[in-house]
Amino acid sequence: MSVTPRLELIDVSKRFPGVLANDRVSLSVKPGEIHALLGENGAGKSTLVKMIYGIQSPDSGSILWEGQEVRIPHPRAARRLGVGMVFQHFSLFEAMDVLENIALGLDSAVSRKQLDAEIRLVMEKYGLKLDPRRQISTLSVGERQRIEIVRALLLNPRLLIMDEPTSVLTPQEVEDLFKTLRRLASEGCSILYISHKLHEIVELCERATILRGGKVVATCDPRKETARSMGEMMIGSDLREPARGQVSVEGPVRLSVNRLSLPKPDDFGVALDEISFQVKGGEIFGIAGVAGNGQNELLEALCGEHLSDEADTIQVDGSSVGRSGPSDRRKLGLCSVPEERNGHAAIGAFSLSDNAILTARSRMGFETKGFINKTGADGFAANVIKTFAVKTLGPASLAGSLSGGNLQKFVMGREIMQAPGVLVVSQPTWGVDAGSAAFIHQALIDLAAQGSAVVVISQDLDELLRLCDRLSVINLGKLSSPRPVGEVSVQELGLLMGGSHGTPTVDAGGPHAASA
Amino acid sequence: MRLLLEKRREPSRTMLVLTPVLSVIVIMVLGIIIFDGLGYDGQQAVWELFFTPVLDVYKWRDVASKAAPLILIALGLSLGNQAKIWNIGAEGQYIVGALGAAGIAFATQSMTGFWIIPLMIITGMVCGALYAGIPAVLRTRYGVSEVLSSLMFVYVSLQLLSYLITGPWKDPDGHNFPQTAQLTDAQLLPHELGDSGIPPGLLIALIATILFYVLVARTIFGFSVRAIGEAPHAARYGGFSSNGIVWATLMISGAMAGLAGVLELMQLTRLNLGYPSGYGFTAIIVSLLGRSHPVGVFIAGIVLAITYVGGQVAQTVVHVPNATAGLFQALLLFAILASDLLVRYRVRLSVSSSPAKGTRP
């Protein structure tokens, strides 16, 4: 086979202060190939694609585009070559419509009418459904991603980079996305697909390059591998996903949420609408749903950041806490981990020890008469670091200097080691590598086994199906009736998740019609 | 060859301490260039401004008595800075604090007793705190920026001062000058502690520095202030109320400005139109130069006091204009704000000619 690769990297290295992010990475992508880039968090995937897209430049090594050595000083140069990129985090203006957002991302000015026509053409060609005149704030996450894809496709890319594109999609939306990507590939467009969902890569990709610690450790054909074997190449050791045996939960109700309603916190938030559920000691309760359907609002309402009007709406071990703030709820044993790690669950500019003080000060006794017990906090943080295998220099390291997965392990450890009676976590393994995810899952299972009630809010259905005893789906701020995990299919959950704001797609199986 | 800015993984502690020192050196060099350009002896002007007050023992008392109010006000402002609550109206709280103490002075004019001075001090602090409470209400209830409202209330306080000293509080024996009557002996602190030459305000500033250090570094309240400033969302998750912190930091800084106002009143012995000295504004520079750290603020307060005293020396010796001290203070503010860049970024000299090397912020 002597096809000139669309893109070839030869011995590309990139060093940041204190870390070699890419160490002589070589990689080649053929025309029309869907190529997976796999690796744990911090393995160097993001740095590598940022160099291809011209956001960063390599310290050494060369980038070949269709056989020619090129320099890509900025993203504009990348786009001119024919490289498109769809980022994990979208950059869209909520208050503008689809057309305006796309126009803002273009390098040259195009008239509104002409752009409208071009967008419709691209969408028709690839089966992407989207009304260019709709305002962003009314769109689901899947629809928002389609805007980013359209924006990239308008430039007729010959290489499309997708950074963890499915982490926010429903199973049905994932199917649609895969159809689009296969269609693109069949027309000769190469695709560089970054994901940590191994079964997707098995399904979609023809070749995979696996990075570990900034180096290429393997290249393989995912169709001949299993998710497990690739996972092991990624972390370099045996991957053990914790299994949760069938447990019969007969403990007392520890968390009871009764017709909890809250108005939306701002224009782009979601109102909570009569949410009710109970979680028993020893039980893991899952809440599935597409991002932006009230998950954050629910977590903040449970944590105490937003108070409800009546105390009875939330009860912890029989005490009504709906009107109590986060500190009082923690004293009663209700701890939580929000989705956003840096800036919400932890303060990046603070040391790990100070981050322990942030939420563990009263339960662990780091506060005496208003004074800080620094020694206690240091000891606790060191203990969390050790128990949860957090890779860091020690309790004095800044939280912001940790990689996402490590910070998540620290935050989870900080809450779990306070032995909460009720733990509510949101996206516990979002953007976390497979090894750390397995570790966190095991810790949640162990916590439940000790008699705590655990609530897991997640967009990752696989995660919920593996961990939970019962599941509900949140859609537009409403919670469906809980169902035991064994009795519910992925398709059914997908329908409950809807996927489009404003128009619930199911009537017959709608949130309140479904019953356990 | 080109200069590159690279983001540091963690802010540099060395630079945090070093840049205020560098800033002072940079403005000295700038000062020489500017004054030479204006036709003065630049070197001598800078010498008189920065070094004469330090080397001349007779100037020390002046420096100390100017440093005390600056340090007291800046300590309060630093607390707010850490929560990213910007009180720009310390000058107003300083004036209102002095007015409160003056009110007590009038009521106790014919009395004696050890309780009068503490009562004046407490009243001044309460008045300063309440005056800073107005921007706090506006911020927490109506979302009004405290930067604007606190500054605007400075001008209200100036009007209040001039109304009182030209009207109800005018000294009946003052030949119609717009000033109050003099404070009585029972209302004044001694000018110096024993024969030490140290004004009592400096001792109070030193004690306050230690108290603020403990407050910020060792208490949950200090922790909550820093948490709100760094990540308000995380602080809320940690159980701290951001409105509570707005109230606390504004009122504490108001009380400190009020305290400085009372002590200054006791130095000057009466209020007149010249009383508003700009200490409340200069203290903003002190708090930034001191990196909002109590010990840094103490040192920065002395540096700024030196520029005040040195400004007067340079005026008489080198005949530079009246505005000289203010000019240097403003330059210092610019230098310290600009040098923040070095805390978060490192500068590297690159010899590579690659056009692709520009590092993005």
Structural notes for this entry:
The complex is a heterodimer of chains A (516) and B (361). Chain A has 516 residues and is an alpha/beta fold. Chain A has two domains: 7-235, Rossmann fold; 253-342 and 419-497, P-loop containing nucleotide triphosphate hydrolases (Rossmann fold), CATH 3.40.50. Helices cover 32% and strands 23% of the residues of chain A. Chain A has 16 helices and 23 strands. The longest helix of chain A is centred in the middle third of the chain and has 16 residues, at 171-186. Chain A is globular and about 70 Å long. The termini of chain A are far apart. The model of chain A is unreliable at 499-516 (pLDDT under 50). With 361 residues, chain B is mostly helical. Chain B has a single domain, classed as ABC transporter involved in vitamin B12 uptake, BtuC. Chain B contains 14 helices and two strands. Chain B has helices at 13-37, 42-50, 52-55, 60-82, 90-107, 116-142, 146-166, 200-218, 220-230, 232-237, 242-268, 279-289, 294-317, 324-344, and strands spanning 2-7, 345-350. Chain B has a two-stranded antiparallel sheet. In chain B, helix 4 runs antiparallel to helix 11, helix 6 (116-142) packs antiparallel against helix 11 and helix 12 crosses helix 13 (294-317). The radius of gyration of chain B is 22 Å and the shape is globular. The two termini of chain B are 19 Å apart. Residues 353-361 of chain B have low confidence and may be disordered. The A-B interface holds A 16-18, 55-57, 71-73, 303-305, 325-328, 330, 336, 338, 340, 343-350, 354, 357-359, 361, 367, 370-372, 374, 398, 400-401 and B 6, 8-11, 218-221, 223, 226-227, 230-231, 233-239, 241, 346, 354-358, 360.
